[in-house]
Design a protein that fits this description.
This protein is an alpha+beta fold. It has helices spanning 2-8, 29-127, 154-165, 216-223; strands at residues 133-140, 144-151, 170-179, 196-204. 56% of the residues lie in helices and 15% in strands. The longest helix is centred in the middle third of the chain and has 99 residues, at 29-127.
Length: 227
């Protein structure tokens, strides 16, 4: 009797509002399987959540360990740099002093070039005085030297200019002007005693300046030339 009542009793999941026409459950284990499936789904979701949390925790621990190692390395490098700060500063100061000394030496040599060239010209002209040629005026600059002399022989004047062309460092030496001086007490167009004045223009080669140093042209422009 009880079995029949269980078979024909209205099920709990009947839809409200619909009339119950009776019947019985032919598959009584389906309700148990559905409950087991729900329980298994809950267990799987819980395991997945635990596994995800464990992975996140392991990743956070790994990042913390790496950050700790990086911080330790950075602190070690900073300590090493602090210890090397004084030697590096001293090395920088010595390098700067050496560069300043080299620049000063190059600058001094460059400034001495015009004077050395003037001495070479004077030494060449005084070592073997040319017969019949007398130097009247000399104007010396870094790039060129202008001379004014008096002579009574064209050949002697030409030889004198050739001697200037043989001076070390000279690029070219050529006559710049030729004129006869006026005799005293006469008009401007009167001819003198046969002597004539001539000019010589000596151009110097540009010295080779090391890279990064002060060039000879810059030094000469600041010095204003040597006379």
């Amino acid at each position: 009797m009880k079995f029949a009542h269980a078979l024909f009793d209205r099920p709990d999941h009947a839809i409200p509002g619909r009339p119950w026409i009776g019947g019985f459950n032919l598959l009584p284990y389906r309700r148990r399987n559905a409950a087991l499936a729900r329980r298994r789904c809950l267990v799987e979701c819980g395991c997945a959540a635990l596994a995800g949390g464990a992975c996140v925790l392991l990743l956070a621990m790994w990042q913390t360990w790496q950050r700790t190692g990086i911080e330790a390395s950075r602190a070690s490098v900073e300590r090493t740099l602090v210890q090397l700060a004084a030697p590096l500063a001293e090395q920088t100061r010595l390098s700067r002093n050496e560069a300043d000394a080299q620049s000063g030496a190059i600058h001094a040599r460059t400034r001495g070039v015009p004077l050395k060239r003037l001495l070479d010209v004077l030494d060449t002209l005084s070592s073997e005085p040319a017969a019949g040629v007398a130097l009247q005026q000399l104007r010396h600059r870094a790039e060129e030297t202008e001379l004014l002399a008096r002579s009574d022989d064209h050949a002697a004047a030409a030889a004198w200019i050739e001697r200037l062309d043989s001076v070390r460092g000279v690029e070219s030496a050529e006559a710049s002007e030729l004129r006869r001086p006026a005799s005293a007490g006469r008009g401007a167009g009167a001819i003198g005693d046969g002597t004539f004045e001539f000019g010589a223009n000596v151009r110097w080669m540009k010295p080779l300046a090391p890279a990064g140093s002060v060039t000879h042209q810059q030094v000469a422009s600041r010095a204003g030339g040597v006379r």
